[in-house]
C-alpha cells in the first residue's frame, strides 16, 4: 500500500500524504520541496579523501569510544545481518562495521564512509530524522523517501556532549527486513553510555588544553575539537564580555589562523593566532602566508587600496590560487569589517536552489517551507561583505536579479516585502569575465556593476619564492621538523603547479603522510609531486633539477644586483649555502 502512496506522491499527488504518519509525511513534504531526487542512488554530499580525514581527525575521540563499545554489539546478533554506522553532527558517515554481505548491499547505495546521510542529502531516513529531532528514530523499509533506501530498515539514536549539543548519530540498519526495530532499547542504552564516556573525555581534553595554555601563553585563543572556546587571553576578555552573543564561539569580525594542538600524540584542540589586535584598526592585515615575491607584494598594495574603499571588486585567479584568502583580506581591511563575511559558491549550488539561497523566502512562501522563513545570503551580508565565488557560473535569471539588488539597494525575498541592504560585493572567477560578456554568457550591465575594482592573483609558478614560507607554515601547523627542506624546495621549483597553492598543499599532505618519520629520496619526492598531474605534457619538469636551480640563483643574483646576502634571503637559503652553490655551478658574478 505504501509503495503506491510513494509512487503517487513523487508524481505530484500531495493529498495522498494524509495516509502517512505525521512525521513521515512532514519529512517527505520537506524532501519534495527541497527537490531531493526520489530516484537518487548517490548522496548529494560525498566528502573528498582530505575532507574525510580532517573530519575523522576532529571526531577521533567519538570514533574511538564507539569502537570500544562495538564489543557489545554481539548482544544483538540475533538481528539478521546488521550494519553499524557512526555519523558526525551533519550526518557524515565516519565509521561503519558489519557483515561482508551487508556492507556489499550498502556500497550499492553509497551507504559508506564519507557519504552524508541527512534528509536533504538522501531523503527521509532514520539518521536524518534523528539529526532533525534530536531523538531516537526508527525507519521501516517503505518509510524512506529515496528509492535506493527503501529496502533498508534503520534505527538511529543521537550522541550528546556535556552541553547537550548533538555530536553524532549511531545507527543500526538491516537489508530487506524489519528486525532492527527490536534493537531500539539496546541502541539508546549504548548511545547514553557513549555520551557519558565522551563527557569524561571532554573534561580530560579541557585539562590538557589548559595545561597547554599555561606553558604557551602567546596571545592565542584555544578551542576544543568542536571549535568551542576554552581559553581567551586577558587582552581579549573585555571584547568578549561586551559581545555576549558570541561567547563560546569564534567571533566573525576577527581573523585568525588555525593550528592544531597535539598533546600526548593526540589532537586535543585548536589554537587561533589573531592577525590583528583589537586596537590596530588602521593597519593592513593579509590573512594568507606572507609572500617573498616582489610582484605579489605589489599585488597586495592594490588589495590594500581597494580594501579601504567601498566599491565592488572582482578577483580573477586560477584554480587554487587563493581567491577566498583575498576576499577575507578585503573584508578584514574594509569599512565593512565589523559586519559579517558571507560566502556563496555559485558553482556548487543548483540553479533551482540558488535563488532561495541568495534571496531567501518569507514564512509560508510555499508548501513545506520553514514556518519561520529563510533569511537569504544577501540579507545575511547586510552591513558586511558578500563574496560570490564562481560568479561566472551564475545563471542568466539570477544575474538579472542580482543586478536589481545592486541598483535598488534592496532585496525582495520570495513572497516577501522589499528590505533595504547595504553590503560590499566581492566576486571571483577563474575565467576571464570579459570573454564571457563577449560570448553573451554574462550580462554586460552586471559586468560593469561588479568590475569596478579588478584584482588578478599571480599564479604560484610566477612566485616560486613563496614555496619556502608555504612549507614553513605547513611544518609549523603539523609540528613537523625536517632537515631536508632545501632539497625539497629544489625539486619543487622544477614543477609549475597548475593547481597553485591548493595543489602544493596537497603535495605536502602526501609527503607528510608517507614520510613523516623518514627522509624521502629525490625520486620519491618527485613521484608525490606528479601524482596528481593531469597530463604528462602539461606537468613535465622543464629542465633538470640542477639547471633549474642554477637559473633560479642567477635570477636572484641579478634581481638583487649581485648582493649575495639579499639574494640568499630571496631564495630562502643561508649565505654560506648560496656561496657553495655559486661555486658548484661555476657562476661568475
From TrEMBL:
<protein>
    <recommendedName>
        <fullName>Sigma-54 factor interaction domain-containing protein</fullName>
    </recommendedName>
</protein>
<keyword id="KW-0238">DNA-binding</keyword>
<dbReference type="Pfam" id="PF25601">
    <property type="entry name" value="AAA_lid_14"/>
</dbReference>
<dbReference type="InterPro" id="IPR029016">
    <property type="entry name" value="GAF-like_dom_sf"/>
</dbReference>
<dbReference type="InterPro" id="IPR009057">
    <property type="entry name" value="Homeodomain-like_sf"/>
</dbReference>
<dbReference type="Pfam" id="PF01590">
    <property type="entry name" value="GAF"/>
</dbReference>
<dbReference type="InterPro" id="IPR027417">
    <property type="entry name" value="P-loop_NTPase"/>
</dbReference>
<dbReference type="GO" id="GO:0006355">
    <property type="term" value="P:regulation of DNA-templated transcription"/>
</dbReference>
<dbReference type="GO" id="GO:0043565">
    <property type="term" value="F:sequence-specific DNA binding"/>
</dbReference>
<dbReference type="InterPro" id="IPR025943">
    <property type="entry name" value="Sigma_54_int_dom_ATP-bd_2"/>
</dbReference>
<keyword id="KW-0805">Transcription regulation</keyword>
<dbReference type="InterPro" id="IPR002078">
    <property type="entry name" value="Sigma_54_int"/>
</dbReference>
<dbReference type="Pfam" id="PF02954">
    <property type="entry name" value="HTH_8"/>
</dbReference>
<dbReference type="Pfam" id="PF00158">
    <property type="entry name" value="Sigma54_activat"/>
</dbReference>
<dbReference type="GO" id="GO:0005524">
    <property type="term" value="F:ATP binding"/>
</dbReference>
<keyword id="KW-0067">ATP-binding</keyword>
<keyword id="KW-0804">Transcription</keyword>
<dbReference type="InterPro" id="IPR003018">
    <property type="entry name" value="GAF"/>
</dbReference>
<feature type="domain" description="Sigma-54 factor interaction">
    <location>
        <begin position="289"/>
        <end position="513"/>
    </location>
</feature>
<keyword id="KW-0547">Nucleotide-binding</keyword>
<dbReference type="InterPro" id="IPR003593">
    <property type="entry name" value="AAA+_ATPase"/>
</dbReference>
<dbReference type="InterPro" id="IPR058031">
    <property type="entry name" value="AAA_lid_NorR"/>
</dbReference>
<dbReference type="InterPro" id="IPR002197">
    <property type="entry name" value="HTH_Fis"/>
</dbReference>
Amino acid at each position: 500500500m505504501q509503495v503506491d502512496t510513494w509512487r503517487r506522491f513523487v508524481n505530484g499527488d500531495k493529498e495522498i500524504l494524509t495516509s502517512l504518519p505525521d512525521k513521515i509525511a512532514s519529512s517527505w513534504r520537506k524532501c519534495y520541496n527541497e527537490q531531493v531526487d526520489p530516484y537518487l542512488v548517490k548522496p548529494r554530499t560525498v566528502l573528498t579523501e582530505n575532507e574525510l580525514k580532517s573530519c575523522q581527525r576532529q571526531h577521533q575521540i567519538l570514533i574511538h569510544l564507539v569502537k570500544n563499545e562495538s564489543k557489545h554489539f554481539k548482544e544483538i546478533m540475533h538481528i539478521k545481518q546488521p550494519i553499524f554506522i557512526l555519523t558526525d553532527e551533519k550526518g557524515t558517515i565516519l565509521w561503519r562495521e558489519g557483515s561482508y554481505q551487508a556492507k556489499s548491499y550498502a556500497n550499492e547505495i553509497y551507504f559508506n564512509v564519507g557519504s552524508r546521510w541527512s534528509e536533504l542529502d538522501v531523503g527521509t531516513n532514520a539518521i536524518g530524522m534523528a539529526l532533525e529531532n534530536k531523538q531516537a528514530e526508527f525507519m521501516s523499509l517503505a518509510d524512506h523517501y529515496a528509492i535506493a533506501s527503501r529496502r533498508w530498515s534503520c534505527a538511529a539514536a543521537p550522541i550528546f556532549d556535556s552541553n547537550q549539543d548533538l555530536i553524532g548519530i549511531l545507527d543500526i540498519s538491516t537489508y530487506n527486513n524489519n528486525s532492527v526495530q527490536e534493537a531500539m532499547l539496546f541502541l539508546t542504552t549504548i548511545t547514553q553510555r557513549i555520551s557519558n564516556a565522551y563527557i569524561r573525555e571532554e573534561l580530560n581534553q579541557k585539562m590538557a588544553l589548559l595545561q597547554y595554555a599555561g606553558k604557551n601563553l602567546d596571545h592565542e585563543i584555544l578551542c576544543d575539537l568542536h571549535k568551542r572556546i576554552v581559553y581567551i587571553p586577558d587582552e581579549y576578555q573585555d571584547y568578549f564580555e561586551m559581545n555576549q552573543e558570541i561567547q563560546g564561539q569564534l567571533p566573525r569580525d576577527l581573523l585568525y589562523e588555525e593550528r592544531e594542538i597535539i598533546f600526548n600524540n593526540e589532537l586535543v584542540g585548536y589554537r587561533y593566532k589573531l592577525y590583528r589586535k583589537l586596537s590596530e584598526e588602521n593597519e593592513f592585515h593579509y590573512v594568507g602566508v606572507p609572500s617573498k615575491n616582489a610582484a605579489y607584494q605589489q599585488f597586495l598594495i592594490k588589495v590594500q587600496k581597494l580594501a579601504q574603499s567601498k566599491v565592488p571588486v572582482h578577483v580573477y585567479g586560477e584554480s587554487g590560487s587563493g581567491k577566498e584568502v583575498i576576499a577575507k583580506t578585503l573584508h578584514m581591511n574594509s569599512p565593512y569589517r565589523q559586519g559579517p563575511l558571507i560566502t556563496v559558491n555559485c558553482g556548487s549550488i543548483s540553479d533551482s536552489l540558488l535563488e532561495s539561497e541568495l534571496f531567501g523566502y518569507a514564512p509560508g512562501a510555499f508548501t513545506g517551507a520553514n514556518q519561520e522563513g529563510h533569511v537569504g545570503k544577501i540579507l545575511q551580508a547586510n552591513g558586511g561583505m558578500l563574496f560570490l565565488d564562481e560568479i561566472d557560473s551564475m545563471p542568466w535569471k539570477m544575474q538579472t536579479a542580482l543586478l536589481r539588488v545592486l541598483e535598488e539597494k534592496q532585496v525582495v525575498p520570495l513572497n516577501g516585502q522589499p528590505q533595504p541592504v547595504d553590503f560590499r560585493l566581492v566576486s571571483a572567477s577563474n575565467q576571464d569575465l570579459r570573454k564571457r560578456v563577449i560570448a553573451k554568457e554574462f550580462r554586460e550591465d552586471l559586468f560593469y556593476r561588479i568590475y569596478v575594482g579588478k584584482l588578478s592573483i599571480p599564479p604560484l609558478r610566477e612566485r616560486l619564492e613563496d614555496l619556502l614560507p608555504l612549507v614553513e607554515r605547513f611544518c609549523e601547523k603539523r609540528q613537523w621538523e625536517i632537515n631536508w627542506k632545501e632539497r625539497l624546495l629544489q625539486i619543487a621549483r622544477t614543477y609549475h603547479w597548475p593547481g597553485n597553492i591548493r595543489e602544493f598543499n596537497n603535495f605536502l599532505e602526501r609527503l607528510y603522510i608517507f614520510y613523516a618519520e623518514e627522509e624521502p629520496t629525490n625520486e620519491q619526492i618527485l613521484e608525490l609531486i606528479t601524482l596528481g598531474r593531469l597530463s604528462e605534457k602539461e606537468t613535465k619538469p622543464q629542465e633538470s633539477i640542477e639547471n633549474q636551480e642554477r637559473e633560479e640563483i642567477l635570477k636572484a643574483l641579478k634581481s638583487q644586483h649581485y648582493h649575495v646576502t639579499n639574494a640568499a634571503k630571496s631564495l630562502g637559503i643561508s649565505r654560506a649555502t648560496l656561496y657553495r652553490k655559486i661555486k658548484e655551478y661555476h657562476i661568475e658574478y
